[in-house]
Amino acid sequence: DAGVIQSPRHEVTEMGQEVTLRCKPISGHDYLFWYRQTMMRGLELLIYFNNNVPIDDSGMPEDRFSAKMPNASFSTLKIQPSEPRDSAVYFCASTLPGYSGNTIYFGEGSWLTVV
Amino acid sequence: DAKTTQPPSMDCAEGRAANLPCNHSTISGNEYVYWYRQIHSQGPQYIIHGLKNNETNEMASLIITEDRKSSTLILPHATLRDTAVYYCIVSPGDGNKLVFGAGTILRVKS
Description:
The complex is a heterodimer of chains A (115) and B (110).
Chain A: E1 5-7, E2 10-13, E3 19-24, E4 31-38, E5 42-50, E6 53-56, E7 65-71, E8 74-79, E9 88-95, E10 105-106, E11 110-114
Parallel strand pairs in A: 2-11
Antiparallel strand pairs in A: 1-3, 3-8, 4-5, 4-9, 5-6, 7-8, 9-10, 9-11
Chain B: E1 9-13, E2 18-23, E3 31-38, E4 45-50, E5 55-56, E6 61-64, E7 70-75, E8 84-92, E9 104-109
Parallel strand pairs in B: 1-9
Antiparallel strand pairs in B: 2-7, 3-4, 3-8, 5-6, 6-7, 8-9
């Protein structure tokens, strides 16, 4: 399997611009997670989906952030307008829970710099 | 709201066993203990998990105390490539989210 695929891997954008990050989960996985990592705050869960439905978005920092999962094989995280403090690594992850716990697989991350 | 406590950093000599402790004194009966690691510039990687029995796989062993309030991850023969941040997480095993704490920075030295 190709694993969780994220794009773009690196993006530099100017403050005020819209940023869209994309994620393709592992085929067959029905949970999808978006995390953000910064030096100051570590790894933070932003939102997660089950069967394409958002379950918990309490970690989404503010209205400038939105996430969608139109189908089982694709999700987007959008920031509009972007600000320098949004600079971070954004990870997407997916899992298929089993009877004895579940393993969450992470993508390689999208490195975002807002200048 | 991480429910675990880990030392901020540890050193280990290459070839020796690395023993990483984790306290989770408020763990609930349905919560698993998970270990992940993150090598610099990469996404977190699953290592192992367990409920109450000790577990072993090709990467590591997980020792959970009988009262389940603490655990130890053991890398039997640490290599330089095991240098990473190691996260201990407790979570129910039914697809619930993983909440990451600060983890332990393990430095394997030659």
